[in-house]
Structures
1.
Amino acid sequence: MDLTLATRDVDGTTIVAVGGEIDVYTAPKLRDKITELVAAGVYDLVIDMEAVEFLDSTGLGVLVGGLKKVRAHDGSLQLVCTQDRLLKIFRITGLAKVFVIHDSADAALAGS
């Protein structure tokens, strides 16, 4: 399974809609996209993971790395995720306390 990435800008926040599997093979594509956005001066990101079917430790590492990149510029990286199997990964690893996880992109944009 491949990884799809689609970005859109909403009032100064960039939403990256991710689809497919984030694993050791596809995670570099997401890391490159985040790096490219930060290099372009985009520091407020919402990673929409609603269409993600699989996430492994490499994918988690990319998300943590992305968070560090935007925080270096006083930015934010928030997640949109409602899938129990993915949320469980964030809870087990303790990353549910590190990331702000919303149930929709609209909620993330509203900051709720």
Note: The longest helix spans residues 57-71.
2.
Amino acid sequence: MNKVFADLPVTVFEAMSQLARDNNAINLGQGFPDDPGPEDIRRAAADASVNGYNQYPSMMGIPELRTAISDHYGRWHHLTLDPMTEVMVTSGGTEALTSSILAVVEPGDEVVVFQPVYDSYLPIIRQAGGIPRLLRLEPPEWRLNEEMLRSVFNHKTKAVLFNNPLNPAAVVYPREDLELLARFCQEFDTIAICDEVWEHVVFDGREHIPLITIPGMRDRTIKVGSAGKIFSLTGWKIGFVCAAPPLLRVAAKVHQFLTFTTAPNLQAAVAYGLNKPAEYFYDMRKDLARSRDRLTKGLESIGFPVLKSQGTYFLTVDLSPLGLNETDVAFCQRIVNDYKVAAIPVSAFYEQDAVTSVVRFCFSKKDATLDTALERLSDAVHRRKR
């Protein structure tokens, strides 16, 4: 058996979701909304399924979607992409990341990875023969600094994986951090693989800045996006890969032997969605920010120290000031069993030297779902301290 995968545990997302099912609990752990998604985009998919083409589409993605992706990033980020040579559609963001990693990493290459780290990164790096070099980000700021980058970048550093906005910490990185990372990538001739699936889910007037737009990074960055996150249609699994032609050509060869192509009706609907006016995306952010604020206010009112969420579907709570004498894992197990609310321990996003006091909650839920969860959690802090 392949040890890279045979020895992996069940993902924390599936484990906590199963506990939620077993306990008939509210699932604020896994990151998915509890509404069906935008009706007009779903209807566009239905129409494309009934009246459109349902055989194999182009391996690279239907031209309409590739053009829509290029136009969308041109409008939002002033990023000029050739839709035919610099844009590829994949079956979700995870497949996009896998294609990108396998396209770049060879045996013996070192890959810089920031913890907390999404769980798919490390096994794919290792399957490619790469060597992860882990850097520890810490609450409450979760920021990059020159000392940490200098400790791992060297002549063997082939790639860096960078998630912005950052899941689970809900940080939207400022230009200062991006320019610092870009400087190291250029100094050590390193390719940046950027997981930017949360790019549109940013709050309080913040701007997502793609690393590919930082000077010197255009030809050494692979940008990954996800329609599932942009449109709250997580089950559709439509991902994007954007990169200069020499990088995209190799990623496309990997994609060819992973999924080859993606449902054409969903691609047509995503093309329709990406062409929606800017007001749609701003309204989506306002709605999610309102849910964030509802859960934040409720958690703070019952004694939870909430770390400010700048983006994503998530907010985090640092348990350390509460004196509960339990780890994040024990806390999450207790609240799902005793209070019927599921959350995610952030230590699960670390392979070594984990932060063990932070818990992630998903707020992309209906008001009634959030309110019921808050009612159930109202005694979770006080009873433990008594």
Note: The longest helix spans residues 278-301.
